Amino acid sequence: xxxxxxxxxxxxxxxxxxxxxxxxxxxxxxxxxxxxxxxxxxxxxxxxxxxxxxxxxxxxxxxxxxxxxxxxxxxxxxxxxxxxxxxxxxxxxxxxxxxxxxxxxxxxxxxxxxxxxxxxxxxxxxxxxxxxxxxxxxxxxxxxxxxxxxxxxxxxxxxxx
Length: 161
Known about the structure:
Elements: H1 3-14, E1 19-22, E2 26-28, H2 30-40, H3 45-48, H4 50-56, H5 66-71, H6 73-80, E3 87-100, E4 108-123, E5 126-137, E6 145-155
Antiparallel strand pairs: 1-4, 2-4, 3-6, 4-5, 5-6
């Protein structure tokens, strides 16, 4: 393992269980919900018809798709994490657990809250992180979702002469 990756692994291991950062607030409006409905072909009325959603559901209006909320994780990640030294690329490796805990009303403000749950060396130049992700809804005691997000960090090997 390169000394740079070894040092990063040691630094990250010391951060396990700690809050790594909290993103800026982002508003999810009806136009964004409609664009997501078009992109995913999920036009269920609870997302796309404010009048019907208000009349026929307990939500009080339309709500964002759960997968729209989850997809904002990338945006929140960019707010919180600066690029790391010698990092060639970071890859979304998947999720171990995702739970959608509260609906996100159209017009709500969301932010991402990240903790470091685990780090594992995968190779001389790869570190697998398990990030705790909580997406908060402004002025709500219950988050929109919680997840364990796996990210693979691939570092640049040193140049041999």
